[in-house]
Amino acid sequence: MRMLDLATLLVCVTAALAFLNARVLKLPASIGVTVGGLVVSMLVFVLVALNVPLALEAVSVVRGIEFDDFVFEGVLSFLLFAGALGVNSHALWSLRGPVVSFALLSTALSIGLVGVTMYGLLNLFGLQIPLVYCLLFGALISPTDPVAVLGMLKQAKVPKRIETLVAGESLFNDGVGVVAFAVLAGIAAATGGAHGPDLSASGVLGFFAQEALGGLVLGAVLGVLGYVALRSVHDFVVEVLVTLGLVLACTAVAAHLHVSAPLAAVAAGLLVGSLTDRRPTALSSREKFDSFWHLTDELLNIFLFTLLALEVVVVRFSTQSLLLGLIAIPLVLLIRAISVQVPVMLLGKRHVFSPFTRRLMIWGGLRGAISVALAFTVPAGPARELFLVMTYVIVVFSIIVQGLTVGQLARKAGNDVLPESA
Fold first, then answer.
1. Which of 193, 228, 245, 256 sits a CA distance of 20 to 30 A from 379?
2. Which terms are listed as keywords in the entry (predicted)?
3. Alpha helices (H) in 279-318, listed in sequence order
4. Contact criterion met (CB below 8 Å) for 318 and 389
5. What's the CA gap between 421 and 399, in Å, rounded?
6. How far apart (Å, rounded) are the C-alpha atoms in residues 64 and 323?
7. CA 160 – CA 125 distance, rounded (Å)
8. Mean pLDDT (the chain, rounded)
């Protein structure tokens, strides 16, 4: 299928699902298109079983889409940049201790606990999956998806302090998770006889510094350059082009320098948003600028969740893998609770966290497209197929069940905020 035909098909399917959601389901856009996309995928499964040629062609088309490339090299940087633009950088800096603790400590704890728990669970089912692969699953499922979380926060309208804390953690912990995933994938490759990165303590620290810190530095440099360009012109079209070029530069340059493109996009977005807030005359129209990036964010979000739902047709399900995915849901939520509570206890003397805020961080820690994209990159083998199904089950539960119920919890969190607390 030609690229034009493929793009037309995806846009039309997305438009149809969005229209159906707006007219019938009336759910939040990302949840509505996910539900609609899953229904379409189930219909395709039935038609494939009946050997309907059109359904077989549809599955072939979806199989030809590199979902991980679409996420990491396509839409993710734009979504993270748009999300970071809306975060108050001054408020984020005042909460730097909790944000860093949740992004680093919570993610590390979750990766370890999920890995060990899955290793024991899979052994109970007679599956001999190496521990390093189970830790790899922990790395892909532990980070909360900033795309899903930021969308949830916009819908829930939580107090700004809580929004800053939850958004800040989600914006940064995906970068930590991706770096951890890369390290563990290198270990898995080395144990399989393939050439991997330097796996000594200094090698791992150096790799983390290059990926994470390098991404932040790159984003900061490009963000400052972008701001200088923005304040020197007063033309809305040029301002939009400058920021689009900035995001693309973050993605392309990060790939060449082997640093984290998501963290570069976050740093650039925070800097541009902060500097233009300080100097409103840097933009010809802040309202039009924000509206453009809000629309871009919404459209890409809907496309991403539609494709996420449609990708289910390429996953090979089995009764055992589905059962393991269902068992993993409460286990992952329990581990999320533990990984949130530990930093809360350590930071208790300097920061006060209301009970509903902690519950919001646990239940609102949605998993989404990033986890699925990482699952597609797990080395080929039995672990890849198993983890892909388990990840899909957890992500669908997270987006639909948690996404539909977190609003009520957010409202309670808003009523339970303590003065100068989180």
1. 256
2. Antiport, Cell membrane, Ion transport, Membrane, Sodium, Sodium transport, Transmembrane, Transmembrane helix, Transport
3. 286-310
4. yes
5. 28
6. 28
7. 45
8. 86
Q: What is the pLDDT of residues 104-153, one digit of tens each?
A: 999 999 999 999 999 999 999 999 999 999 999 999 999 887 777 776 66
Rounded Cα–Cα distance for residues 284 and 238 (Å): 10
Amino acid at 410: A
Dump strand ranges (E) for 110-220. none
In terms of Cβ atoms closer than 10 Å to its own Cβ (0-12, 13-18, 19+), residue 309 is buried
CA–CA separation, 269 vs 86, rounded Å? 8
For 122, 241, 296, the CA distances from 236, given in Å and listed in that order, are 55, 9, 15
Query: pLDDT band at 420, cuts 50/70/90?
Result: very low
Give the chain's length.
422
User: Which ranges of 311-398 would DSSP assign to H, the alpha helix?
Assistant: 319-346, 355-363, 369-376, 382-397
Token duo for residue 339: 């990984």
- Domain boundaries along the sequence of the chain: 67-415
Structure tokens belonging to residue 317: 């399900």
Q: Report the predicted TM-score, pTM, of the whole model to 2 decimal places.
A: 0.89
pLDDT digits (tens, 9 = 90+) for 296-315: 988 888 888 888 888 888 88
DSSP strand E in 34-117: where? none
pLDDT digits (tens, 9 = 90+) for 45-97: 888 888 888 888 888 888 888 888 889 888 899 989 998 998 888 888 888 88
Instruction: Give the residue among 64, 84, 52 at the shortest CA–CA distance from 172.
Output: 84
**CA 307 vs CA 5, 66, 71, 314: distances in Å:** 15, 11, 10, 12
Q: In which region does residue 368 sit, left (phi positive, over 0), alpha (psi from -120 to 50) or beta (all else)?
A: beta
H-helix or E-strand spanning residue 136: helix 131-141
67-415 maps to CATH 1.20.1530.20: yes
**Integer Cα distance of 101 and 192 in angstroms:** 33
